[in-house]
Amino acid sequence: MGVYAGKFLRVDLSRRTWHVESISEEEVRKWLLGSGFAAWKYYQEMDVAVAPLDPASPLLVFNGLLSGTFAPTGCRTSCCGRSPLTGIWNEATVGHHWGAELRACGYDGLMITGRASQPAYLYVNSLTNTIELRDATHLWGKDYFETADALLAETDRRAQVAGIGPAGENLVKIAGIMVGPSHYVRAAARGGMGAVLGSKRLKAIVVRGTQRPDYPDPAAFRDIVREHNAFIKENSIALANFGTAGGLVGAEKQGDLPIRNWILGSWPDAEKVSGQTLYSKYLVRHTFCHACPIGCGKEIEVREGKYVVPRGEGVEYETLAGFSALVMNPEVEAVALANSLCNRYGLDTISTSSAIAFAMEAYEREIIGPCDTGGLVLRFGDPDVVLALIEKIAYRRDIGDLLAEGVRAAAERLGDEAKEFAVHVKGMEVPYHDPRAFVHMAVNYATATRGACHLESLSYWNGYNITLPDLGYPDKVPPHESGELQARMAYDYQNYVSVYNPLGLCKFIIKARVGPERLCQIVNGALGWSWTPQDVLTTGERLFQLKRLINVRLGVTAADDTLPPRLLRQARPDGGAAGVLPDLTAMLRTYYALRDWDEQGVPRRRRLEQLGIV
Questions:
Q1: CA separation for the pair 398, 308 (Å, rounded)
Q2: Which of 309, 333, 308, 311 is nearest to 323 (CA)?
Q3: Over 60: is that where the pLDDT of 53 sits?
Q4: 281-297: average pLDDT
Q5: Residues ≥6 apart with Cβ < 8 Å to 427
Q6: pLDDT grade for 4, boundaries at 50, 70 and 90
Q7: Architecture of domain 7-208
Q8: What is the domain partition of the chain in residue ranges?
Q9: In degrees to the nearest 10, what's the CA dihedral of 163, 167, 171, 172?
């Protein structure tokens, strides 16, 4: 196998040392790379007594197996470890071109421990055989845009940068790791991995390489890629035109869009802030990650008006939903500015907007007041308040210091009433697809390995008529019925989607109707394997069960596999999902049986033996 380097760098920041470790073919076959191999290394070496922001807590930054190849969307990198937000396993993934550049350096990933004595950045350049820990005191305190552009100027304009802004430096637990130059930024956003980087005083990782992967039969693989790229393009036209933001109006009609901190069922202003509205006015160009045939990225610029937005990466669905409907903001330009500020400061847009909506409701209920907010009056529908709170969170100023801990921690500090409207699972703020609209997502949110995560299942796409016949779902599954079929759907989709981060492929090709059969054709062409669809699902389950074992060691039990009160007990009053509540208890019985977990949510040994984990 020539498409992966078979090695990673283990870096100790405290000692300022590093060495290369190999990855065996057997390990790759079993765990793939990316978050799969990272989870295996973490499981082997984990110490439950080590807190997420302790210097000994590892940050594992690993490419997927096909990252840096020309496989369709072979671009993904996973930033893994113990989350400071949830306290359990976390993998925050990002596309862009950073992963391909790391592969071109000859490495699959980095395993970083320790804490630098002063701010530093890691520079890896295969052209000059350079691996250096360089001083970054001149960058500490700068926002991510300034940091990335400065590093490109002082290293190599063709290099790729991943790093943090002020939120990561200030150990904000919803801080992400940002990737790319100032005008084209993507984020490994969820779970607070930016705070992990900040705790290590590592401002950035800069990579520059020239090596290229090889393939068993390059010509044959190019033919496979050409065929699948055409198929993916044909089935992703709307995504190419408007990005994920193009789905906001449809989500509102389905009852899928969260409104006013998940209270309301419909919102008449959805059209005003839709992706179609935003990009018809402010689109500069479409952007593509490495090897991507879709181009869902959208560069925008707002040059005039109250909310001027500098040239930069556009708004995706989750960001659009969170900074519009969730906080009742109808100003699309203000949403775009909120997105730009989060990218600049290095914040997860889902958790940030969720924390702001939570704070607005707490203010409305008089749980907090002007003395807590620095005099700021928190009202739903006020975009200026949203923008002010983003900065407060990034710098931990007054109420921002509380919100920087995440919704769960904020609610625990504010008391029982606040817990009733704190929308999270296992400490992870719920992404913006309502499990009352698609009840199989309730099972996924309750059991997903990093806490509430739509990307660990994506079964809600079935509700938008994106069906996968070769996964066993040729038709639309009844979205409001809490039955065995819905529980099985969560299980099957989780197993399938679990291989994507380890393979380094973007999950959006699933939206383009790439099922297990097509995935096998891509993988086999790149690697010379003979994978079958069943191999895909078995590998996916092996990876999912491994991460569950990590979480069990970190204290997760069946009691944690639940949803927040607002989503279990309070139905949407109107709209496409009016009156629907998921029967999570019933569906979890089926799901636990499929997973072969005991009543405490622990995988039984017989299943682990079958999967080759123990």
A1: 26
A2: 333
A3: yes
A4: 97
A5: 83, 85, 86, 87, 88, 406, 408, 409, 451
A6: low
A7: 4-Layer Sandwich (3.60)
A8: 7-208, 242-422, 433-610
A9: -130
The CA angle 67-68-73, to the nearest 5 degrees, is 60
Tens of pLDDT, residues 163-172:
999 999 999 9
Q: What is the dihedral of CA 467, 546, 79, 16, to 10 degrees?
A: -160
Give the number of C-alpha atoms closer than 13 A to the C-alpha of residue 12, restricted to the C-beta side: 8
Determine how many CB atoms are found less than 10 A away from the CB of residue 210: 12
User: CA-to-CA distance for 475 and 465, rounded, in angstroms?
Assistant: 8
Q: Letter for the amino acid at 255?
A: G
Provide DSSP, 133-166: EEE-TTTTT--HHHHHHHHHHHS-TT-EEEE--H
The predicted-structure confidence for 333-388, as pLDDT tens digits, reads as follows 999 999 999 999 999 999 999 999 999 999 999 999 999 999 999 999 999 999 99
CATH code for the part of the protein at 242-422: 1.10.569.10
Mean pLDDT of the chain: 97
Side by side, which strands form the sheet with 283-287?
283-287, 297-302, 309-313
Partners of 19 in the β-ladder = 10
Say whether pTM exceeds 0.90.
yes
Taking alpha carbons only, the member of 316, 395, 323, 310 closest to residue 354 is 323
Task: Report helix, strand or coil for 481.
Answer: coil
184-220 pLDDT tens trace: 999 999 999 999 999 999 999 999 999 999 999 999 9
Instruction: Determine what percent of the chain is predicted with pLDDT higher than 70.
Output: 99
Domain 433-610 = CATH 3.40.50.150: no
9 neighbors 122 (Cβ within 8 angstroms): no
Distances (CA, A) of 122 to 131, 203, 301, 607: 7, 8, 32, 41
- Per-residue pLDDT for 224 more than 80? yes
> In 3D, which of 157, 155, 113, 108 has the Cα closest to residue 136?
155
**DSSP-assigned states of every residue in 289-350:** -TT-SS--EEEEEE-SSSS-EEEEE---HHHHHHHTGGGT---HHHHHHHHHHHHHHTB-HH
**SS (HEC) of 19-76:** EEEECCHHHHHHHCCHHHHHHHHHHHHCCCCCCCCCCCCCEEEEECCCCCCCCCCECC
Give SS3 for 604. Answer: coil
